[in-house]
Amino acid sequence: MENEKATIKETYVRMARLCSRSEQCFSDIHKKILAAGHINEEADDIIRMLKEENFLSDERYVKAYVADKFKINKWGKIKIRYYLKAKGLSDEAIQMGLDGINEEQYKKALLKTLKDKAKSVKKKNKFEKMGQVIRFAQGRGFEPELIHRYINQVLE
């Protein structure tokens, strides 16, 4: 029994170290704890301790994830929301993170994505070209309404 307690403590320390190096979400940590051979109740206890000690915070994770995916990967809000939802994070936390994106920067990122793709499309027909550019921007996770609002500025 004493051996088991040490294993939980070791796992806690390992997870705390991981969380202190980079933001983690509870679902990723939960999977890692289970992979280390612990049962669900033990994993929940370790996660609770990590949250109490402020090693684990969904809000911080969402904020960091949104910033990275928007600034580095140039993703739109739909794609970011989809991936965060897949990690089991709450709608409130996700919305709070997405609200942190500056609207002017978001518009600039969309316009740059549209312009860059429009330059690389070899189609002569305007509608085929427009279709390819729209599909690309949607694949990046930008909202269809925004894409359609700005597409004509790019293709003129």
Task: Provide an overview of this structure.
This protein has 156 residues and is mainly α. The chain contains 9 helices and no strands. It is 77% helix and 0% strand. The N and C termini lie far apart (72 Å).
Unreliable segments of 5+ consecutive residues: none
What is the residue-averaged pLDDT?
Answer: 91
Summarize the amount of helix as a percent range: over 70%
Radius of gyration: 21 Å
Strand content: under 5%
Q: How do the helices and strands follow one another from N- to C-terminus?
A: HHHHHHHHH
Total DSSP E strands: 0
State the secondary-structure class.
mainly alpha
Q: State the end-to-end CA separation.
A: 72 Å
Question: In DSSP terms, counting alpha (H) and pi (I) runs of 4 or more, how many helices?
Answer: 9
Sheet with the most strands, sense and barrel status: none
What global shape is seen? Answer: elongated
Q: Could you list some keywords that capture this structure?
A:
single chain, 156 residues, mainly alpha
How would you summarize this macromolecular structure in one to three sentences?
This protein has 156 residues and is mainly α. It has helices at 2-21, 26-35, 40-52, 58-71, 77-86, 91-99, 103-120, 126-139, 144-155. It is elongated, with a radius of gyration of 21 Å.
